[in-house]
Design brief:
This is DUF4810 domain-containing protein. Pfam families: DUF4810. InterPro entries: UCP020555_TPR-like (IPR014508). It comes from Marinobacter salinus. The chain has about 120 residues and is mainly α. The chain has a single domain, classed as Serine Threonine Protein Phosphatase 5, Tetratricopeptide repeat (Alpha Horseshoe), CATH 1.25.40. It is about 70% helix and about 0% strand. It is flat and about 70 Å long.
Length: about 120
């Protein structure tokens, strides 16, 4: 009886720990936005507005915006023809994630040269 009780208590503690795990990064509605952008074009503009608002205001020091989300926002803006905003998001990614600097530095330079 005691073994079953301890096993049940252990499982409860384990499941509670998993349920409260917030993850390392803040992803917002990233997956949902991608689905809408590629599969529901009539809702694309609204989904992108929400995504861009999240990227500009989301994240905390404990849970920063996930790597690549600023660059993804920049790519969305570049596809819309808004080069200045795309560069802004690429620079945000550049500053937030140093490992992306070689590639994004070149991309930013090329976009600024084309303006």
């Amino acid at each position: 009886m005691t073994e079953k009780y301890l096993l049940g208590l252990s499982l409860l503690v384990l499941l509670t720990g998993c349920a409260s795990n917030q993850g390392l990064y803040e992803w917002g509605q990233y997956q949902e936005t991608l689905f809408v952008v590629y599969h529901e074009p009539e809702l694309k503009e609204e989904a992108l507005r929400g995504y861009l608002e999240f990227v500009e205001t989301g994240g905390t020091p404990q849970h920063p915006i996930a790597p690549g989300l600023y660059a993804e926002a920049g790519t969305f803006m570049l596809e819309q023809g808004d080069v200045d905003t795309a560069i802004k998001f690429y620079k945000m990614e550049y500053e937030a994630w140093p490992e992306s600097q070689p590639m994004l530095g070149m991309l930013i330079e090329n976009l600024e040269a084309r303006k």
